[in-house]
Design goal:
By secondary structure, the chain is an alpha+beta fold. It is built from 7 helices and 10 strands. The longest helix has 23 residues.
Amino acid sequence: MRITASTDIGLRSEQNQDCYKAGRLGDDSYWIVLCDGMGGVTSGGEASYVCVSYLSQAFEDTLIDLASPAEVQRFMLDAVVKCNEILYNLSSEGEGRIMMGTTVVMACIRNSFAQIVHAGDSRAYHISKRNMNQLTVDHSVVQELLDSGKITEQQAKSHPNKNIITRALGVDKKIVPDYNEIKLSKGDTLLLCTDGLTNMVEESEILSIIRSSEFFESADNLVKRAVELGGIDNVTAVVFEQ
């Protein structure tokens, strides 16, 4: 089991408001936290940093004491809810923090079992020997239009409301994060990424890059490709291999 990651400010941003951290506890417990900040020039970066710092510390302090997947699930969901409260309270402290918020996608991998919690449009993918599947569903206006059949997949790619998300930490007093889980086989890959990657690079090319790259170059190659195609946003990729 191994992890590699990469991030880039992109070509049009003043600040990299993406933030991530990953860690290992014991022989077979790994965790990943990835956030994409939103808000003003500084408040989005602060939101993602605060979120990653809080959730990372929560994993470090708590994960080793959790015995079952059900306990891990409750811990992850509760941690995101608590983090939302922290960010929401921060956002009310001053003008520079008004509407500060962040997406989050995080994963815990133990005993070949991955548990994922997310809010927003940062994504998690499972890549096996056969295919690549998106494990998360975007909390976005465009996703709602897709789900209702009002637009097609092709129309979604260039929709003017593409970047409007409907759920994020720090924006509302309460939040309901989504939970997913999957059993991993040896050689399977998990990709956690921000929309700076998925808005620029087609999923078929993401899969091709991961499969053709040496493992510890895969995240770098994904990020570099997003920048080559325009880099209109911060872009971050974290790759875990079972």
